[in-house]
Please model this.
Amino acid sequence: MNLAKGKKRITVSVVTALMMVMVMVPGMAFANTAGNTALSQTSQNQGMFVNYIDASVNSKDSRIGQYGTTNIKQYFFNGADIEKENGGMADDSHPYVNSYAYNYSIMTDTSVSAYWDNYIQGTLNPTQPIKFGFFLGGSQTAKCNDQIMASNIIPKMSIQKTDGTVVLTGTQIYKGWKHQRLANGGGTGSGPLRGFDVFLEIPANALAANTQYVLVFESGMGVQTLLDKKIVFHFSTDAFAQSISLGSKVTLKEGQTKTLKAAIKPENVKEKAVTWTSADKAVAVVDSNGEVKAMKAGKTTITAVTKDGTNLKASCPVEVTPVIAKVSLKAVSSSYNRVKLTWSKAAKADGYTVYRYNAKSKKYKPVKHTTARSYVGKNLKTGKTYAYKVRAYRLVNGQKVYGSYSAKKSIRPVPSKPALKVKAGKRKATAKWSKVSGADKYVLYRSTSKNGKYIKASITVKNKYTDKGLKKGKRYYYKVRAYKVVDGKKVYGKTSQLKTVKVK
Model:
């Protein structure tokens, strides 16, 4: 029967060992000494495990035999803490139901000539008191008393390392004893006391974690009939975390998630669960699986704490960067020495930075920080090409955190576009236009068709010109533009809107 199918109590803290010493067969060999049998052998002996409680309620169960007889050796493994008597002795059909909860047994019959070391299944938690007990049986045990316990039982018990080093003596683990068992009337026994329980407890933190130990019953233990060899029960203590790490800094954008993994060593730690916390949940939250979700821009720390009682901590800095939209940039010349930039709005932006390309450094350098969505570049050279970029930023802990740059826009400052008016007269047309800042001269163009060839009707420093000698009843088309001479070259501005009149 597999151990997992036995009746374990929820409060189990250790598997306990119980042994029955045969009165009439004192020379029988018991288990080997510590360390002589490989752990792998336990799997082939799993079938020897018996649920003692289930078997004991059936007096015909051949795995148990007649209670109190001398032809069976039993080593019982308890699946629960030693519990108090819960209501007197049982009857013959249920001899041990109301007694202590010794659940699992390994039985060795007198016909078996080979014996093997016994392994307490599972690992034990050394940070808690480990309570267990065993049953010492035989007809002579009714004569046991405190003096015999002190002289011939307690000194023969110990907790040892696998190399034989004594860690805890019998005195350090002994907690008491009590006559308990009655025979069920089968075989040679019909009522006298046939054994007693011994209570043991390993103090909390008395054993090292992640270590193999043996519970040893030395030869010579007994009341009158004594063990001829030591009996050992192997067990291991739980492995506890010795270190924990989370890795390096994590950077996330708002809304992004990332699952952190806690690396715990040694790898055979029994309890690998950790508790996750975030120092600032407004910035990032973390769930029980270590998944971090970025909430808003800022910095926080995610911490993992081991849950195996060691309370080891590891922290990982998390920086959440804001999601900032890339702006769309437009640029126009607003005067002979000025350009105007405008751009789209970036959601949640606290401001924008305007950059202009510097030919000497071959880099874009900031020329303006603003909360507006426009910028006018002043005192520029007419006709020179300037390149600009803009990007939005948000303030995080007093620091500017930027989004991506806009696409580059190149623009030349040129004279502004004049506003043109034309009035028809008798065989003439008078054109007037607005003055353009920085203009050296204006060029007025004329054509007899909208899409025809235009000729220069006038080049003047004035903002007015009368075009004479025109044909009566003929329609004429006019447009004007200004220019400025820079380094001996004419830099023209944009052409005015087209105007047309019919001469009288």
About this structure: The first strand starts at residue 16 and ends at 19. The CA atoms of residues 476 and 501 lie 6 Å apart. The chain has four helices and 37 strands.
